[in-house]
Design a protein that fits this description.
- With about 280 residues, this protein is mostly helical.
- It folds into two domains: about 25-60, no CATH class; about 65-270, MetI-like fold (Orthogonal Bundle), CATH 1.10.3720.10.
- About 75% of the residues lie in helices and about 0% in strands.
- The protein is built from ten helices and no strands.
Length: about 280
């Protein structure tokens, strides 16, 4: 009997998968803008429709189109820019002074333990005191002029920058410090090349928080004794029952806060180019 051996045919080689086509850049930009703006567009659409359905509350919540029209009229008349300029001058002045004061002090406290032991009790007292609670004190001591408003912004912005700077310095990986010292870096070069760059992301977190505080605290301060500014515009519009003007001031504040935050994000990326983000 003859046995017939049947050999299996070798499997045909699989075709190599086609590389995925890269999405065109314009399409990616449009998609990113759409995804980021869809919630805002939905909110504005709801704002436009709801007052037209619930006409009883339309006086207190006018449609967005009416608010936008009043905002544009204020812009053309120059009133909006006058109030915005006054608020930005005060908030930017206090914000810049806070950065100039808080970052060096935070680096000093975070790096030198004797300084931290000396100042920490005082810092703990003032960090838990709300800035708006001290507003009457600032007004009594410094008057109703520009100095009191800039000072309250300076006070409120100092704490997030100072505390985050201290945390950033103390949170540097000890292994980095030991490695730098083993390579012969002196204290000054160690601080310049290792401590400061490693603390930059945490410092910028505090700076971004301070940027928001600079606007919010100032608006509250301008409600008391100011003759110009977005806070004054909102308060005066509410008192005169000019509701669309009030909402126009609120929208302007939101826009300024968004611009400040995005600008600080760009600066953070600029000063943290060495940092590797997840997914890269």
């Amino acid at each position: 009997m003859v046995s017939v051996l049947t050999a299996e045919r070798p499997a045909a080689p699989k075709a190599a998968p086609r590389p995925a086509r890269a999405t065109p850049l314009p399409f990616r930009i449009v998609r990113a803008v759409f995804l980021r703006s869809i919630a805002i567009v939905a909110f504005l659409g709801l704002w436009e429709v709801y007052p037209r359905i619930d006409t009883e509350n339309a006086v207190f919540l006018p449609p967005f189109s009416e608010v936008a029209k009043v905002w544009y009229e204020l812009l053309l008349s120059g009133d909006l820019w006058e109030h915005t300029e006054a608020s930005l001058t005060r908030s930017v002045s206090g914000f810049v002074l806070a950065i100039a004061l808080a970052i060096p002090l935070g680096l000093l406290i975070g790096w030198y333990k004797p300084v931290a032991d000396l100042l920490n009790p005082l810092l703990e007292v003032f960090r838990n005191t709300a800035a708006l609670a001290l507003l009457p004190v600032f007004v009594l001591l410094l008057g109703l002029g520009e100095v009191s408003k800039i000072s309250i912004v300076l006070y409120s912005c100092t704490w997030p920058i100072l505390l985050n700077t201290i945390s950033g310095v103390k949170g540097v990986d000890p292994l980095l410090i030991k490695s730098a010292r083993s390579m012969g870096l002196g204290p000054l070069r160690l601080f310049q090349k290792v401590i400061l760059p490693a603390a930059v992301p945490t410092i910028f977190t505090g700076v971004r928080l301070a940027g928001a505080y600079a606007i919010l605290v100032l608006i509250a301060a301008e409600l008391v004794g100011a003759k110009a500014g977005l806070g004054y515009l909102i308060g005066a519009s509410q008192s005169n029952f000019a509701i669309p003007e009030m909402y126009a001031g609120i929208i302007t504040i939101s826009g300024i806060g968004l611009v400040i935050n995005q600008s600080l994000l760009v600066l953070e990326r600029r000063f943290s180019t060495w940092r590797v983000t997840p997914g890269e």
